UniProtKB/TrEMBL annotation:
GO cellular component: membrane
First-listed, main subcellular location of the protein, grouped into a coarse class: membrane
Locations listed in the record: Membrane
Ranges annotated as spanning the membrane: 60-82, 118-138, 158-178, 213-237, 258-276
Protein name in UniProt: Cytochrome b/b6 C-terminal region profile domain-containing protein
Sorted UniProt keywords: Electron transport, Heme, Iron, Membrane, Metal-binding, Transmembrane, Transmembrane helix, Transport
The keyword Magnesium is annotated on this UniProt entry: no
Protein's organism: Candidatus Fervidibacter japonicus
Signal sequence, renumbered to the chain: none
Lineage, broadest ranks: Bacteria, Candidatus Fervidibacterota, Candidatus Fervidibacter
Topological type in the membrane: Multi-pass membrane protein
Region spans: Disordered: 1-35
Pfam families assigned to the protein according to its UniProt record, in alphabetical order: Cytochrom_B_C (PF00032)
Length: 304
């Protein structure tokens, strides 16, 4: 009886939508584990490209490295062509008027006009650092916006960041171009030869031209307390202004909880109070229009 040869094995059909697997030749000097790791990396890159994503390594890091090299070359060429804007050597017998800090510290120097040194030089910079550290612990949407730059979903975060950055630039511009003499405001058309006496135009606190006898200003303290009350209770009164905004604020409070909500609103209140205090000092705050307040809160222990 004749024996039949075995039928050739039929190739397996690929599932619909799946690419046929193409074996990759092993490179010389590579172990089997390295070959498998290379194939896995290539597969991950292919899947990422299909999903519209880009891998951090090597795509993003490679582009960033080339950008850094290009920028370094540009800065090197600029430093060879243009001299640094240095002034004459310092003279201990001649103090420049006004004595300005470097531009990147002008924001802090300008804040010294509106607050006492311990607030402008210690408390506010410390609050900025601590506030940045607190953000991950009070973020109610940690997965929103990862890998994408989008306004939607993080509107308030963008508003506060852009507002804070713009405020810092405004402080630098004021200190660089509008301060002269005894660190007074000079408009571009005002002569620099005229030395202004700032103290003559300042009101110590609301309803008190001079420091009060008991070093306490109840009107200013009441205004500051009312301001903080409005900030901390905004989810409850905002619904009377706009119903949808009020509901979103209430939901935000529920997501945070009481403790995290109080922490967030503490930083928000100081963020809003800084430009308000600036307007009070410059005499352009609507409640005290034309009155340049030195302090709003006056106590025997501290002044704000």
């Amino acid at each position: 009886m004749a024996e039949h040869a075995p039928a050739p094995e039929q190739p397996r059909s690929q599932p619909a939508g799946q690419r046929p697997a193409t074996p990759r030749p092993a490179r010389r000097g590579m172990t089997e584990e390295q070959v498998q790791a290379t194939q896995v990396a290539a597969e991950r890159k292919r899947e990422a490209l299909e999903e519209g994503k880009v891998l951090t390594w090597p795509d993003l890091v490679y582009a960033e490295f080339l950008s850094a090299v290009f920028l370094t070359v540009v800065l090197f060429i600029v430093s060879l062509v243009f001299n640094a804007p240095l002034e004459e050597p310092s003279n201990p017998n001649k103090t420049p008027i006004p004595s300005r800090a470097p531009w990147y510290f002008l924001g802090l120097q300008e804040m010294l006009v509106y607050f006492d040194p311990w607030i402008a030089g210690v408390l506010l910079p410390g609050m900025i650092i601590v506030g940045l550290m607190v953000i991950p612990y009070v973020d109610t949407k940690p997965t929103v916006g990862i890998g994408r730059y989008s306004w939607k979903g993080r509107e308030w975060q963008y508003i506060f960041f852009i507002g804070g950055f713009a405020l810092w630039l405004i402080l630098i511009v004021i200190g660089q171009f509008f301060r002269w003499g005894p660190w007074a405001i000079y408009m571009p058309w005002e002569p620099r030869e005229h030395i202004k006496v700032v103290a003559e135009h300042l009101t110590w606190c609301p309803l008190h031209k001079d420091p009060p006898a008991n070093m306490f200003c109840p009107v200013g303290f009441l205004i500051y307390a009312l301001f903080n009350a409005l900030v901390f209770t905004y989810p409850w009164w905002l619904r009377f202004v706009h119903k949808d905004w009020g509901e979103r604020a209430i939901n935000y409070y529920r997501q945070l909880g009481l403790v995290r909500y109080l922490i967030v609103m503490f930083f928000v209140s100081w963020t809003l109070f800084l430009p308000i205090k600036m307007m009070m000092r410059l005499g352009v705050f609507p409640l005290f229009w034309g009155i340049r307040l030195k302090y709003l809160v006056v106590t025997p222990w501290f002044n704000i």
